[in-house]
Write a structure and sequence with these properties.
CATH topology: Immunoglobulin-like
Largest sheet: 4 strands, mixed
CATH architecture: Sandwich
Oligomer: single chain
Bound molecules: copper (II) ion
Structural class: mainly beta
Helix content: under 10%
Strand order of the largest sheet: 2-7-6-4
Number of domains: 1
Shape: globular
Amino acid sequence: MLSTAGCLGGQSSSAQTVTMPGDLTFEPKTSTIETGETVTWTNESDIEHTVTAYEDEIPDGSAYFASGGFESERAAKNRISEGLIAPGESYEHTFDQAGTYGYFCIPHESSGMIGTVQVK
Ligand SMILES: [Cu+2]
């Protein structure tokens, strides 16, 4: 379901969920949120995944994010097991800066498990 509710300004408490349904995708592949909103990634599959930002595909000056709480893509890749989201678990991140954020699942990047968050 795609939310197209018009934003009339003011405080928004909405958030968006991205699921990992088990076919090595993020659903939806592209999420669009407002600045200050939170995206929750939920693993609905029976295997482990990560949510790992591409360090060079996030806005300049924005906070790096990755499941496991890593501060760099290199750290996330070096310690993959600490960033894995188990089946039924979730990870969330609040986006405080507008822009386009690219991210991927470390174990399944080569299968195309890649997503984007657009923060308006
Ligand atoms: Cu994955």
